[in-house]
Every structure is written in structure tokens, then in C-alpha cells.
Amino acid sequence: MPNLRLPGLADVHTHLRVPGGEQKEDFSSGTAAALAGGITTLLAMPNTTPPLTRPGTLRETCQKAQRAIFCDVGLFAGASPQEIELLPQLSGPAVALKIYLNETFGPLRVEDLPALLACFQLWPRRKIIAMHAEGPNVAVGVGLAAAYRRPVHFCHISRRAEIELIAAAKRRGLPVTCEVTPHHLFLSEADAARLGPLADMRPRLAAAADVEALWRHLDTTVDCIATDHAPHTLAEKQSANPPPGVPGLETSLPLLLTAAAEKRLSLERLIELMATHPRRIFKLPPQPDTWVEVDPRASYTLSNEGLQTKCGWSPFSGMRVTGRVQRVVLRGTEVYADGKVLAQPGSGQMIPRALN
Ligand code: DOR
Ligand code: ZN
Ligand code: ZN
Questions:
Q1: Strand duo 129-132 + 152-154: pairing
Q2: For residue 272, what pLDDT band results from cuts at 50, 70 and 90?
Q3: Strand (E) positions, the chain?
Q4: What average pLDDT does range 204-218 have in this prediction?
Q5: Is the shortest distance between the CB of 15 and ligand 1 below 6 Å?
Q6: Distances (CA, A) of 294 to 37, 255, 266, 274
Q7: Which ligand number lies closest to the CA of residue 237?
Q8: Which residues surround ligand 3, an ion (CB under 5 A)?
Q9: Is 217 helix (H, G, I), strand (E, B) or coil?
Q10: Are the beta carbons of 244 and 192 closer than 8 angstroms?
Q11: Ligand nearest to the CA of 134
């Protein structure tokens, strides 16, 4: 059987650590990892150091990115209560707005209602708002989507009650969408006990019943698979105060192809969840002459060896998978083949284009 041809995947939730965390990942290593995972467009999160909450920082980061990237990249602006009036100025260079309602890596948080309302009033309607909301805060986001009649995208939904609430909101016709991560689909609390800090992230790994609920909703309520690629160095993860987060760009497609091989989801649904839906929800530009070639029957063990991500480890190391990325073509150019990145630095495009 010949290789399978998939569209270039889009990951709407990646942490690339520029500025301030380049020892964990940078635009070069992160977009190389994306290509190795069949991802040709990624959206990078704003919880950097400093965070992407000011126009100057956002523009400088765009410029740095443009010189380095191997695939297409959009940057999220971050909502910060102290700088909320800057949101309109951030909306040009940013692809979308990210609001953190819950505690996670870095200080970015919007906890007071006036600041939250200001986000919905000041951020232009043509660009989507994405939220890190856990537990009852998912209901806060659903309420805001209803009150302001505008799309809200929920990041990394991980609990049964959360996915059921989003299903109910969708039945009501509310403009909400959501993503789930491969780690919340393929790992649970039991793995957290086994892997310790290497399986610590926000939201934390959940109970088996939550994992089952995500799988049950994969064909209906779930809109996207997003990696929440959150690289930290092994030294940081093994320190006394390990930061939360796990890498995922290179393992996401092999894991989902394995699920497809096991008939846990169809290949058509995989393509919707990893390419069509994220591109539509975030209004990402098309990439003509772009595809990913995979060998759907290649069976192998995921390993830390040969990873493109700077952090050099994966919580899935040692897991047997079926399905390997062989080759990636972006806008007619071979950018990745047989484990090697062939693209030129800076050949990826920033979304939106031509800012300066
Ligand atoms: O585990 C996480 N790590 N969750 C987040 O929301 C942030 C991320 C990070 O930036 O490391
Ligand atoms: Zn998050
Ligand atoms: Zn994240």
C-alpha cells in the first residue's frame, strides 16, 4: 500500500518560549518539531517572559519568528489586567487573544470580572478569543460567549463535566468550540503516578472516566486536537519545583494515527480534528500544494532519540505506535523527509502576513 497523503496539520496551541525561555524551545527548534509531526501551521501562546501583552513585545517577537520559522506561525496576544487598554493595538499582529482564567505556567491571569468584560469589549470581533478555563470557569466562558454573542474557543478540555457543558452549550446554538490534547486522550492519573513531574501539566491528567468521556465526544463535541506542546528542560522537570507542561508536537499525529489504525476514530475525523476544523475556527490562511505523507502501517516505539524539540524528551517515550510521518511538502517545497528538516530558516510565513 502506498503512503497516505494528509493535508498539512494545524496546531492551535503551542508554547515556543520566545522571548525569555529559549533554553526550552525557540522558533527554529519548535517549528522543526512541528514539521516532524506533520504540522505546517502552528499558533504560539503568549505566556512568555515577558508575555505578549504589549505591542512592542509582540512586534519584536513577530520579527524574530519571521527570521527563524520552518513552518507557518501565528502568535496569540495575552490578556493582562494591567494592560487591558492595549488590546486593540495587539489585535493587528496577533492571530487571536488568549485569556488565562486558571493558574498555570507564568503569571498571565485575568481573574476579575471588569477586566474580563473589557477583553470582550475591546478585542475585535473578527478575531477569536481562546480561554484556558478549567472546571467552573468553563461556565464563565460559556456565559461570556452567550452574553456577547461571539465565538469562544476552549483550550485543552479534559474533564467529563466540562465536555458535557460544552455539548449542552452547542445544543443551545452558542458559538463555542473546544480542543482536547493527545495527553488527555492517551494518559490518565495512573500515568501521572508512574511518570511524576514528566506527566504534570495544567489541566492535570484526569481519571479514566474523564478520558472515556473525551473519547465518547471525539466524533461530536470536540472540534480540534491541539498539542499544548509545553516544553521544559529535563533539569527543570526534575528540579524541586518542576514547571507544568509536556511537549507534544512530534507525538500527536503518530498517537492519533495509532487510534485510527485501532479504529477508535476514522481517518476522515482525524483530518477534521487536526486540519480542517482548526483552520476554519481560527480563520487560518490556506497552504496550497501542501501535504504530509505518512506510512500508516509503520509500527515502532516512540523515543526521546532524534526529537527535534529542544527539550529532548516526551512523556510518551516507550509507547508503541502505528503510523510514521515520512515527508512534508509546504507550498510545493519538500520541507521535511526521513527525519530531517530541509526547509530554509525563515521560509515559514507569519499569520497575519506583512505587518511591518
Ligand atoms: O501544563 C501547562 N503548561 N499548561 C499550561 O496552560 C501552560 C503550559 C506552559 O506554558 O508550560
Ligand atoms: Zn492552558
Ligand atoms: Zn498551553
A1: parallel
A2: very high
A3: 4-7, 9-14, 39-44, 72-78, 96-100, 129-132, 152-154, 176-180, 224-225, 291-301, 320-330, 333-337, 340-341, 350-351
A4: 98
A5: yes
A6: 10, 13, 15, 14
A7: 1
A8: 228
A9: coil
A10: no
A11: 2
Q: How far does the centroid of ligand 3 lie from the alpha carbon of residue 207, in Å?
A: 20
Domain architecture of the chain: domains with CATH: 4-355 (3.20.20.140)
**pLDDT attached to residue 22:** 98
pLDDT confidence of residue 353:
87
Separation of CA 213 and ligand 1 centre (Å): 22
Q: Which residues, 6 or more positions from 225, have their beta carbon under 8 angstroms from its beta carbon?
A: 179, 180, 181, 182, 185, 252, 256, 270, 273, 274
Can you name the residues that pair with 329 across neighbouring β-strands?
291, 334
Query: What pLDDT, on a 0 to 100 scale, did the predictor assign at position 313?
Result: 98
Q: Say how many Å lie between the CA of residue 283 and the centre of ligand 1.
A: 24
- Looking at residue 192, its pLDDT comes to 94
For 89-119, letters b (16+ CB in 10 Å) and e give bbbebbbbbbbbbbebbbebbbeeeebbebb
Query: What is the reported pLDDT for 356?
Result: 44
The CB of 201 under 6 Å from ligand 1? The reply is yes
Q: Does the C-beta of 8 come closer than 6 Å to ligand 1?
A: no
DSSP label at 343?
S
Identify the bridge partners of residue 6 per DSSP, sorted by sequence position: 292
Strands 72-78 and 39-44: parallel
The helix/strand/coil state of 130 is strand
The sheet with strand 333-337 has its strands ordered as 4-7, 291-301, 320-330, 333-337, 340-341
Q: Hey, what amino acid is at 285?
A: P
Nearest Cα residue to atom 2 of ligand 1: 245
| CA 222–ligand 2 middle distance (angstroms) | 17
